[in-house]
Amino acid sequence: MASQVSHGSLAARLSHLYGNIRNCFSQQDELRQLDPEMQARIASDLALSPSRLLHLSDTAADAATEMEALMRALRIDPPEVRLASPGQFRDMQVNCALCENKDACRRDLASGAITEHYVDYCSNSEELSALRAQPRFLAD
């Protein structure tokens, strides 16, 4: 049980780091100015590849907002997932932030058709389906 608490704490810290990584480095492209070894160390701490970390640092601070909107449309409680599975939540945020299907996602969110179409393009669709199957993650 102690290892789960420790892992949860680490995952929570990593999730928090993801939320702040762009803010720390994006203003002056400081991340790209670091030597490759330091970039690799930071990426490793975040469980990302160095190239994915650099790509992530280029995204806007609100690049994963669609994920939480999609979760709510699917009646999944984002705060509950973030609390219970911070590592999974962070990984899903990264997938969303780096997604190449944002136009379709935003269009479906706006039209209310997201629940029918997200499985066609969302890189988090399997995780979202698994979360929907767990009653503890469903919103009341």
Description:
Residues 60-133 form the DUF6455 domain. It comes from Rhizobium helianthi. This is DUF6455 family protein. It holds the Pfam family DUF6455. InterPro entries: DUF6455. The protein is an all-alpha fold and 140 residues long. The protein has two domains: 2-57, no CATH class; 65-137, no CATH class. The chain contains ten helices and no strands. Helix 6 (78-84) crosses helix 7 (86-97). The two termini are 29 Å apart. Mean pLDDT is 80; it is low at 1-7.
Model regions low in confidence, pLDDT < 50 over at least 5 residues = 1-7
* Rg, Cα atoms, Å: 16 Å
User: What percentage of the residues does DSSP assign to strands (E)?
Assistant: under 5%
Into how many domains do the coordinates divide? 2
Pfam family, one: DUF6455
InterPro entries: DUF6455
Organism: Rhizobium helianthi
Protein name: DUF6455 family protein
Keywords:
140 residues, mainly alpha, DUF6455 family protein
